[in-house]
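Narrative of activities, Objective 1.

The group set out to show that a structural description can be obtained from nothing but a protein's sequence at a throughput compatible with the screening campaign. Below is one input-output pair from the validation batch, recorded exactly as produced.
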Amino acid sequence: MSRRPYCSLMAASDAGQVALAAGCKLRILRLREGVFRSFSPRNRIYALSMPSDPKVIVTGAGVAGLSAAVQLAHAGVQVLILEARERLGGRILTRHDPATKAAVELGAEFIHGRPPEIWGLLRQHKLEAREMVGEDWCAGDGELCKCDFFPEVDEILDKLDDRAPDQSFLDFLASCCPNPRQQESKKWALGYITGFHAADPGLISIHSLVKGMRADEEIDAERAFRIPGGYELLVEWLRKELLDAGVAIQLGATIESVTWKRGSVEVNGQCGTDRFSYTASRLIVTLPLAVLQAPLDLAGAVRFSPELPAEKLGALEKLAMGKVIRATLCFRERFWDDLRARGGSESKTLADMRFLFSQDEWFPTWWTTLPEKLPIITGWAPSNRAQKLSGRAEDFVAEQAVQSLSRLLNVRKSEIEGLLESVHCHDWQSDPLSRGAYSYVKVGGNAAQQQLAAPVENSLFFAGEATDFSGHHGTVHGAIASGHRAAAEILNG
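Output recorded for this entry:
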């Protein structure tokens, strides 16, 4: 990931002043009528000053850290957020395609169901969310047809039982479905585990899958929604709340070590060419799971002194980070609108295609922007496919995505390339500040998320999607809820 050789600060003052940080040195600027403006990263317009004595430091400005900071600030707690990236949002990363002017998500995209953590923010800030509607198509054996595998996959998933000993999904599949006639259904079920959960089916816990399915039922998670302007709109509103509350955010601040004891934490790191050291009474750690798991000799890893308790380290071993590479292709026109199904008795066009499922070797799942009919389609390469693409040049990823779409739609690659305006992708596995997409639970790790979330000596607190133990890990709403939980633990402690 490209890193700029300087850091930045964001915060607010009653006088409507902000500061420009470059090399961690501040210049005070005054904005007309005290209105805070949005600036591009190049302008580096940030906040008035650093708190002299923060009570809580938050590591990470993803939605977990931002949400925790909002709760604490509203309760009158002085907070400092340290973020290694040069932006807010963490694994929310919205870009705007210059040709279509559309918001393109490189990280989180969907609202799964109606979780109150997100819908409450949408109502509060009068933001719209649109439900993803349309038809689901399948491609295989040279044919395009409406998908009919969902009932068969549901039949397999209904056999998952958390009263039996825990096992991997792969082992479960081998024992539950020996009928040779179910081979095709088993392939689609495996595709669901590797695709939706971004998981290794030989590692993921069936107990965790059952817990997640029950949690999904409570929020109607089979429905999917999008924010038309992108998830960055939620991040922007959280930013504004923090500015209004006077919270300071230091960007470009790479944390290297945390020294802690009961009632005191010291955070040390690098900000451009400058060293920093901050102390506080408490620390909320919202670093992604794989960053917490990273060996200390890798970029982005954090050393805790003393080491985290054995139970916490054991919890880290029972969780895994899913892998995903996604590629969003933007075209001059929706060329698939005029394509017709191949084979069988289907005669419909793909004009109302929502999802396209397949067993493709690179990008097995695709989706469109419905209900908005934009000339954009996104390919999803999960698990072992993402592993093979990770670390490769973006041109290689784009090439595989175009070839995949050509195969599945039976459209000449040259035709697709002739209509292609741009490709957007981000390698979360190779990004040292994420090292993966989102978390899942390994066999025997049923208690691991709660153990990872547990406070240590009333000094270290933990948030982030991997610490959600309600069944909503791997989601934006799970991350927000974890931030609320960590803030409540501090306020009630």
